[in-house]
Design a protein that fits this description.
Length: 454
């Protein structure tokens, strides 16, 4: 009897999988912190006989090479991928016996589109297809974006995505489970998935790659692509070279004087506490990236690559979880860290900084000529409607465009509050008077604010 276990990477919006039979299993697109995969195999009582990659990933650092080294598994990587390490090159139609005793096998299916070498893997039990690991090819209701490799390849890869999705749909039975890596919040997806599970049959009626002609599909796909997180530029090369083993030992501890010194040197000091606690009191000059938000995505996107970062956490557990999140995107070793509260992070006699939080109703009550409304949502969100007179600077552009924010008290909002909190901390550190709107954007209409729609 076969099994498939899903390993959620919520912070990155991805999934990895462990699948196999009674005694052996394959790990698909494993995260860098491979202890999760090893623990899943231990719970099942199976050995990992194979590790496979659907493609050279652009949004996270893979754990495939390290997992194969630890377990002695065969490491299957698409033959077309240009990598610098030894692996088993996989071509279209190649098969692998995952657990011969349970008659569980894997068949490679070339599905270019997300990358030129992208490969999906059909899982068979006794010769019957039961699932397909589609990586960044066929996702739930959408496909992986085709613009992460090279601009000249974007349109050809978009056309390849259409053909690859249709190949999977025609080659596999309707009841085959579709198990993608991307689509659960990852910016590797061309759109976000709706729902948690799907099959080939469901995708035939719901996926735009399978319901529209190629010209319409390509036109709509390319028109909907938004900016790529800046750190993506570093993930592919790291994965192609072969990532170093991760190091999750605790970082050096920083006292108040060292935190002040690092701030004065222009290093990043990141407060991991929730946005309410940060607004109420924090180290002046620090930035707020909530540990429970999309920490890895947004911190890696905004921080200048390679700049030292010091983490401030309310507990050792919060610090360890954040460190685990960050190694997944190549932020390997925090320069220093501290746990506790602002009272322990500031020199004696220094008061914490703070700024107010409010709602859209609060904004409506205070709206006047001295109030600047800053919208830090993405372009696609803004297109669905915005507050009349608001300034639009997407969060990922704010650090380099702070000088464009007009004078006055800045009321900053996003769609729900998390990104507004990050933006408020950037503005606060720059010396601006700021109010963080911690509210859902739907409340703007209820508050009586005038909205413009595109």
């Amino acid at each position: 009897m076969f099994f498939v276990d899903t390993i959620e990477l919520e912070g990155l919006g991805n999934r990895s999988y462990l699948a196999g039979g009674e005694s052996a299993a394959v790990a698909v697109d494993p995260p860098r912190d491979v202890d999760q995969v090893l623990a899943a195999a231990a719970r099942r009582g199976v050995r990992i006989s194979h590790v496979v990659e659907t493609h050279v990933h652009n949004d996270y650092v893979t754990g495939g090479l390290e997992l194969a080294r630890i377990t002695g598994a065969r490491y299957l990587v698409p033959a077309g991928a240009n990598v610098a390490f030894a692996r088993v090159p996989v071509a279209d139609g190649d098969t692998a016996d995952i657990d011969p005793g349970s008659r569980v096998t894997l068949t490679a299916i070339a599905t270019p589109g997300h990358t030129p070498h992208h490969t999906s893997y059909a899982l068979h039990e006794a010769g019957r297809p039961v699932a397909v690991f589609t990586g960044g090819s066929l996702l739930i209701g959408t496909v992986g974006r085709p613009d992460l490799v090279e601009p000249r390849l974007t349109e050809p890869l978009a056309r390849a995505q259409h053909a690859s999705a249709r190949r999977l749909a025609s080659a596999l039975p309707d009841e085959t489970a579709v198990l993608p890596t991307h689509g659960f919040g990852s910016f590797c997806s061309s759109a976000q998935s709706e729902g948690e599970r799907t099959t080939i049959g469901k995708e035939k009626s719901a996926n735009t790659a399978l319901t529209t002609d190629v010209e319409t599909f390509v036109q709509d796909l390319l028109a909907g692509l938004e900016d790529v997180p800046a750190y993506y530029a570093h993930m592919g090369p790291v994965n192609a070279a072969g990532p170093a083993p991760l190091d999750l030992t605790p970082p050096a501890r920083a006292d108040a004087d060292e935190i002040a010194t690092r701030l004065a040197a222009g290093e990043w000091v990141v407060d991991l506490r929730n946005r309410v606690a940060f607004a109420e009191g924090h180290v002046a000059g620090s930035f707020n990236f909530e540990a429970d938000g999309k920490l890895a995505t947004y911190l890696a996107w905004l921080i200048p690559w390679g700049k030292p970062v010091t983490l401030l956490a309310e507990s050792a557990e919060q610090l360890a979880d954040a460190q685990r999140e960050l190694v997944r995107v190549g932020i390997d070793r925090p320069a220093a860290a501290a746990t506790g509260t602002p009272a322990t992070w500031l020199p004696d006699g220094t008061a914490p900084a703070s700024f107010p939080r409010s709602t859209f109703a609060g904004l409506a009550a205070e709206r006047n000529a001295d109030v600047v409304v800053l919208d830090v949502r993405r372009d696609s969100e803004r297109a669905d409607g915005w507050i009349e007179g608001s300034v639009h600077i997407p969060l990922h552009e704010l650090r380099s465009r702070l000088g464009e924010v007009p004078l006055g008290t800045v009321w900053v909002h996003c769609a729900g509050g998390m990104r507004a909190a990050i933006a408020a901390s950037l503005l606060d550190a720059a010396g601006r008077d700021v109010v963080a709107v911690d509210d859902g954007f739907d409340a703007a209409t209820d508050a009586g604010l005038s909205l413009i729609t595109g």
